[in-house]
Please model this.
Amino acid sequence: DTAVSQTPKYLVTQMGNDKSIKCEQNLGHDTMYWYKQDSKKFLKIMFSYNNKELIINETVPNRFSPKSPDKAHLNLHINSLELGDSAVYFCASSQGTSGSMETQYFGPGTRLLVL
Amino acid sequence: KQEVTQIPAALSVPEGENLVLNCSFTDSAIYNLQWFRQDPGKGLTSLLLIQSSQREQTSGRLNASLDKSSGRSTLYIAASQPGDSATYLCAVRDYGQNFVFGPGTRLSVLP
Model:
């Protein structure tokens, strides 16, 4: 049973397009995150949601918008895609935001290539 | 601004060896530190989480220590196995719930 799943696994698209990546967790966790891993393998946090409230918002372009329809889902919508958006995007979840509840569980990643 | 570095960048050892991976951070005001492993083409798997008030955590053959005052953490792997081959990343979280990851150490354990 997959704990954190992402769709699609691969996404190839043209510059200027709008795309969404979906994330679902079946762990009953309260907090979900989005990370970007660039070509140099550096991992950076983009957003996190706790009980449908944004609690971290790194300095990412406003072309990126997280949307959480419910506690189990955190989707990432990207407008006007640019070449520099090409990366692997990881979704993660944790039980909470304090103590041992913060152990994070990661999805398999979505590989985005912007042409 | 928090910066996290990891040494070495890559490490190759024969099976059975004990090894130590290092993680350094510039701002000691951290809330916790996590160690992850990442297999090629896969997501991250959390290995150990150390709270700022703790000195170490253990899980099986893994032991992670934390010295906040010196800005260092080490991950000790005992009796390494080929299945331990992966990239190991450390990540620190501050009290503002910002996470900063290190660049990782790529480990190869040779049979």
Remarks:
- Chain A has no helices and eleven strands.
